[in-house]
Amino acid sequence: MNKLLIISFLCLMLFGLRNEAAAQCNPDIVPPVAVCADGLIYQASATGNQTALINAGDFDAGSSDNCTSQSQLSFFIEEGTGNSTPPTTTSLELGVGQYVVTLWVVDQAGNHSQCWSSLTVDPNCSATDVTPPVAACLSNYSLNLINGQATLQAISLNDGSYDNCPSPTQTIELAPASATPPTTTSLVFTASDFGQTEVVYWAVDAAGNGTPCLSTVTVDTCLSSGGMVCNDLVTVEVGYQETVSLYPEGVLEGGPYCYDQMVIGHALFGAPAPFMTFTYNDAGTYNVQVTHLPTGNSCWGTLIVTANCTGDVLPPTAVCQSQMSFQLSMNGPDLTILQAGMLDGGSFDDCTGFNDLVFEAQVGPILPTMTELVFTSVGTYTDIVLWVGDQEGNFSSCNTTVNIVAPSCSPDTLSPSFVYVPNDTTVD
Fold first, then answer.
1. Residue 16 parent element (H or E)
2. What pLDDT digit, counting tens, does each position of 63-98 carry?
């Protein structure tokens, strides 16, 4: 079934926030917001040098980024403060005592920020710890079933939990919360759990102190392992100096689909991504592919990007052929007619495509422009002006020279040949 999808300025208004977020990430130049947990207490090992392993992630207390998800952020740690670039160390081994450390948070684009924390390495942390962890969990989480089921790990709901005696373990159970922390670290969901289910996420420290956090899990039975169907024809209209983002849901039909597991792409626009961004300079026809990442299933659709040049005030760039020669009498005795476009040497416009450019020409600056030039005599015409116009009526010009030369058979001094052909003769 063919379906025409027009994405216009109305779509930009309806999905403005989504497009704005996409623009901020392409490229991403905004560093993460680093949030540190302070006053952590580590228990030193009972044997050896009585040291504790200090992991960078222990100090994250809810760091975030405008583009990179919390789970994709990278954390690095160093002792002390004052450096301007992040280290490569993700952990430290420290002996008994008090320290100040720097937590570095780095997003997928390489932007980074930092915060500082104090910590204590205590030889008897768990025995003296009565402070429960700070539990931070995602309030909402979407779960897509693959082959009829999905497993939710407690760690997937973590949104920056921390403890003064790190690191807290993470467990999970169905709501309501138990009086004491559970030991289960995952839950299995099937199609019978379609819809919303409340679960309790727990952060539990080494001393057994636990803190619960409530989260709502939405189970989606979308089509994720097959049956993908792309529209045969999708049209995207892009306004002058505007951008439009196309997501997989703009190409797929049927469903429901797991859109958050989809990417869309075309070779000319780089690697497949969650969305494609077009400007008015991208006008053309493309075969785009939508792929479901977990299974590799995909489908193809034809995309036509059209440019709406309303508001374009920039004239085209007119490029003339430097010098051209044509024979006289190409279109009749002593008559040669040249179309204006024959003078073009590669003109272009910032919005209007080449096939939609308007070409007019004139001989001399004061004569009216015409779509064709008529020559009736041999000569060199140095005052030829080519005018190039776009869809909004903006014009620019360039100059060229046209040589009209005598036809190859001129002068013709030979008389036409005559051959006598006798009438048919019948022989009895």
1. helix 16-24
2. 999 999 988 999 999 999 888 899 999 999 998 888
